[in-house]
Request: fold
Amino acid sequence: MPLRSASRPAVSMNNQAVIRTALRVGMVAGIICIAWTVLLYATGQNPFGPKRLMSIFVAPLAAVLAEWQLRKRHRELATLGRQLLVGVLTVVLTALLAATGMYGLARMTGPKLIEQNRREMEQVVRAERANFMKEKGGEEQYERTLASIAATPQGLAMDEFSKKLILGLLLAVPGAIFLRR
Reply:
């Protein structure tokens, strides 16, 4: 039986601390996003409309919180690489859970509410047509915006996932840089 080096188990333990932190914070943040969407639906608000975007800041805040917790609890592990890893894992998990919750709610509520949301979003975009036309390439941007309005549960889930992922990753990187050891 080959002998293992003393540093080998420590590496896996280090990664376990990173993964545990990302799972803990990412799960809580994802559940918060799902709860917000369900709360909007339960109170008669449009869970697919603009008010759901208030939860978009949960993913980046969760990433920075996970990076901060890793630094606080395992200061010796708070290298730039591990800070980036914990931030990215937290954002991906949060976005994935939020998108799954959005998909489940969209499937549960049915196509009627999704269609109502699509009509409301089209009205908002059409009301802003004049602002689109003031810019160069505004007509094309206007048409793309109209075409990108989600009309299926998959589209809503993908929109939720991509928005949370992009904003989360944008703020996870500076957080990792500032919270490294």
Observations:
- The two ends are 37 Å apart (CA to CA).
- The chain has seven helices and no strands.
- Residues 15-109+153-178 form one domain.
